[in-house]
Amino acid sequence: MDLNRAKIIDDQFRRAIKKGNYPEAKSQTSPEDLGLSRIELVELFDSQMLSRHLDLIARTLKEDLKSYYTIGSSGHEGNAAIAGVFDTKDMAFLHYRSGAFMAQRAKKALHADYIYEQILSLVASSADPISGGRHKVLGSLPLNVPPQTSTIASHLPKALGAAYSIILANNLPKAENFTHLESDSVILCSFGDGSFNHSTAQGAFNATEWIFQYTQQLPIIWICEDNGWGISVPTPSEWIVTQMRSKKAIHYVSCDGLNLADVYRAAKEAEYLARKRRLPVFLHMKTIRLMGHAGSDIEFHYKAEKDIIRTEQDDPLLHTARIIKQREWLTDKELLQRYEDIYQDVLKQSKRALAQPKLQSISEICASIIPPIQAVEINTVSLQNREKCFGKNMRLLSEPRNMAQHINFALTDLMLSHDNIVVFGEDVGNKGGVYRVTQDLKQRFGRKRVFDTILDEQTILGTALGLAQNGFVPIPEIQFLAYVHNAVDQIRGEAATLSFFSNGQFTNPMVIRIPGLAYQKGFGGHFHNDNAFGFLREIPGVIIVCPSQPRDAALLLREAVRLAAEEQRVVIFLEPIALYMTKDLYKAKDNKALQVYPDVNQKIHFGEVGLEGDAAADYIIVSYANGMHLSRQAAKILDVEHNCSIALLDLRWLSPLPVNELLVLLENRKGVLIVDESRRTGSLSEEIVTCMVENMVKLPQIKRITAEDCFIPLGEAFEAILPKRDNIVNKILEFFKDKDHARPVSIGRKVQNRREANS
Questions:
Q1: Which phi and psi angles does 680 have, rounded to 5°?
Q2: Alpha-carbon span 96 to 58, nearest angstrom
Q3: Residues 235-289: pLDDT tens digits?
Q4: Reduced to 3 DSSP states, what percent helix, strand and coil does the chain have, rounded to the nearest 5?
Q5: What angle do CA 409, 415, 418 make, to 5 degrees?
Q6: Are the beta carbons of 707 and 676 closer than 8 angstroms?
Q7: pLDDT tier at 743, thresholds 50, 70, 90
Q8: For the CA atoms of 584, 557, 391, 464, what is the dihedral angle to 10 degrees?
Q9: Does the pLDDT at position 580 exceed 50?
Q10: Are the C-beta atoms of 456 and 206 separated by less than 8 Å?
Q11: What ranges in 38-188 are assigned the alpha helix state H?
Q12: pLDDT tens digits for 197-219?
């Protein structure tokens, strides 16, 4: 059996046209039923043929070791008709088999170099206008198609968020100042029948139903390109229709993907429902898959030869050719000539593309991880408006308050100055959050800007992604750090990669608030008291910031929003839950952990660390969050009980680590103690030690205190596996044990000054 199915399918098309050997129609919808003219249908057919030839050239180039991607759209070319219905104002999040859709949409934008650009992407050329050679994606800024790298369904939640952003913008008085999508736009999102089964997809459909109950509008069209296979796993013939027809809010529309006219009919129906009635639609396009999942996929391993041949005979290009031939719109010769002309154009453009450069240097490759800076308009807030918004809480701004209140005050000020900020998550609205951090925000700004979500982290983050792509600066809350594990791919695979794979042309800036870390008394388990966040630190481009005291919480949140709004960054604002309500610092009822809310013009800059204590001391503690809180207590004990002064360095920025400033402040120290409340393995302390070893000429003595490699137990037992104040004191004292001295040697400027005075 010949394994080169690409050549067989190409030859079969040419022979079938010459002999008039067309497959029988599966559905009876005709162009005349829809008013589709000869010109319109032939144009769609050209897009189908172009998509096919791009698939064929990808295989040829791969065989010649000149290309790197062979997942194609062959069999799915009916989606050209969907693109024929919708305008470029309708943002499209596309499945990797929507090549014909892209070919047709390019014509609407007069995208003359579309073939060349697609082949640039195939050969990973740095001249590729969408990804700059970083990946083969279907994406284009002028075509309003954000690039998707998802091979499953991780792009569905953000498509849902984009649809919701349109409804939200239509209900906000100043939204036209920052949103990009038009008020009557529709969101398109395509995926395969294999992806349909993924939990992310099912969560998106469930969230669609849930959101619609509240909005009664949601202009999104879910396009399921159903070829009956998830790589080698067959999809039952009635599986998807059975699942989707039971939905109450989502309108089910089906079509024969082999019949361009029938796809066009279904797309027009879907457009009416979504654009005119603002209803969610599930457009089920039944089609086939040709040439397997990808070039490396040999279908004979899991499909019978007769079944492969039968599928190939149902080629959608032949179905369209039959429709054209029956109406005598083109002759056999003209059909073949158009097919050949497109092939020659693709061949010509491939030679042109192969001559273009590839990415080579580290700086070139990494350049698009960080998005470009954009100009941002910020409201000037009068004292009168501020007083009106804060109401009776205005007086609290001048009184010492806890961290939770500082975050609440900062969110209020930020929402006053930024019309495009929305705050949302589970329980953040009516309840004001589990820890009351968002208390009164809904009353201050209304339910359109502060709202509760479904209990699904994928939906929460996906909503943020979609909102961000329409000009909003979303501040979603994930209720606990451990809950992020349920949806980390929304950050890793979607949010963080968008700028990278679009060469900075598409961004989804946001500030993700995550209450987390340990030290909560009475909480246990790995959900509500989780101290490990290494899984977030490894994501390129993502910023993680974490305060250790109330004033810093407000200032750092302001900077986090600036980074999102101006620098279009994805920022994780990690909030230490145990410090939310903390009042006391050194002893019970001293209230020294409370601080006065900083003036609105005060700032902490990106990468700026906090230095406390005796700045010039020989010995320094490096920490963050709860560890910094404990280190302040330890420093007090060392000063009072041991006559020792030390320096304290609050990192604040946990990723990327402020390396340069850190090294400067650690230079010429005799000892460095790193207090890291995360687990020993994979902790931030490992990176700090490595950074020092690699960059410092003269290393100080280094010690570290970390949590144990263990989950947090219930009750007071948690203290046994986490860093403690007394551990910090004892570890510092260890620095000064000397065989010639019974007590510690001089540590810090204070002790040295005292000795000089005594002498």
A1: -55, -45
A2: 14
A3: 999 999 999 999 999 999 999 999 999 999 999 999 999 999 999 999 999 999 9
A4: 45, 15, 40
A5: 140
A6: yes
A7: very low
A8: -130
A9: yes
A10: yes
A11: 38-63, 80-85, 99-108, 114-122, 156-170
A12: 999 999 999 999 999 999 999 99
229: closest CA among 107, 336, 74? 74
Are the C-beta atoms of 654 and 542 separated by less than 8 Å?
Answer: no
Angstrom distance (rounded) from CA 60 to CA 65 = 9
Distance CA 654, CA 574 (A): 9
The pTM of the full predicted model, rounded to 2 decimals, is 0.94
In sequence order, what are the residues at sequence separation of 6 or more whose Cβ sits closer than 8 angstroms to the Cβ of residue 451?
422, 424, 428, 429, 442
* C-beta of residue 607 within 8 angstroms of C-beta of residue 549: no
Q: Where are the beta strands (DSSP E) in 322-432?
A: 400-401, 421-425
The mean pLDDT of 517-523, rounded to a whole number, is 84
Q: For residue 319, give every residue at least 6 positions away whose Cβ sits within 8 Å of its Cβ, in sequence order, or none.
A: 22, 23, 25, 26, 258, 259, 260
Looking at this protein, which amino acid is placed at residue 442? K
Amino acid at site 297: D
Q: Phi/psi of residue 49, each to 5°?
A: -65, -35
Backbone angles phi and psi of 235, in degrees to 5? -100, 125
* DSSP H/E element including 321: helix 316-326
Q: How confident is the model at residue 1 (pLDDT cuts 50, 70, 90)?
A: low
Please tell me the distance from the alpha carbon of residue 542 to that of residue 509, in angstroms, as a whole number: 10
Query: Residue 555 corresponds to which tokens in the numbers above?
Result: 């200032």
Question: Which residue type occupies 739?
Answer: K
Helix, strand, or coil here: 230?
strand
Please, are residues 203 and 234 in contact by the beta-carbon 8 Å criterion? no
- Which three-class secondary structure state does DSSP give residue 412? helix
Region 579-594: mean pLDDT is 97
- Asked if residues 304 and 325 have their Cβ atoms less than 8 Å apart, the reply is no
DSSP 18-63: HHT-PPPPS----HHHHT--HHHHHHHHHHHHHHHHHHHHHHHHHH
> Which candidate, 249, 256, 310, places its Cα nearest to that of 282?
249
